[in-house]
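Class prep. Protein, please:
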Amino acid sequence: MTLPATGTIAMDQVNVELQKSATALATLNDADIRALAGIPSGTISLDNLHGKTGPLNTLNFLATSTSVSSTIVVPATVQAGDLMVLFDGPAFSSTTGISGPVPTGFTNLGAGPTGGWTNGIIMSAKIAVAGDAGTTLTGANGNSRNAKVLTIIRGNVTVSTFNVVNVQASATNNDPPGFTVSSAGVSGPAVLACCGSSGTNVVNMWQGYPSTFTTPAFGLVTQAATRMVTGFSNINRGVASYDQRCDLQDYGSGNMMRAGYIVLT
């Protein structure tokens, strides 16, 4: 929502914009109202709140789509300002390095392994714009196999910026030892995004899920056929972030994991 650009503004509208009860006790001198107006001190009036939009506080999973080809379709429900996170898992018939590509308009948030393997994971994201809904994205195209999972997150207001932190990644032909994604320095709103893929088949998702090895349980788990599994959790403003343990079962070869926190404004 956004407060009216002109005319009268009532305090109940301001409360709602700040995701509080319309009848909550509030004054123009409250810190959150001053922050909304952009006036940290001095004289302030309701007129200073014209056209103001409240902060990004809460996140919800909107939709997902999956693919086992070089392309993937954006869900039709996507709106401008939604966050789109893509995990792409190409595999090739010979040893190569995985560094991209990512679809047009997406930001590469990390990819690998960059050499010595036939498969890998590419993590990328984009803030949706008008016209993205229903479009076809072109990502990596492995000549052996492909797997893609696109996850859409919507905030109480449009997402303005994103930045990935505390990235973890691993690659092994043996039983993956697992890793922990640190929450150090992470404050909500943020998205915890994790992916596992294999050179063979990922049939049982995360190891021991949801009770052991991969904990806490994710807010959303999605599987692309038997080739990739993702796990996501949303951290809302004011909610403590946490360390996430990720572990993939041993699928014989090319066991890959990649994860990190995406911090939003």
Q: What stands out?
A: The helical segments are 11-17, 31-37.
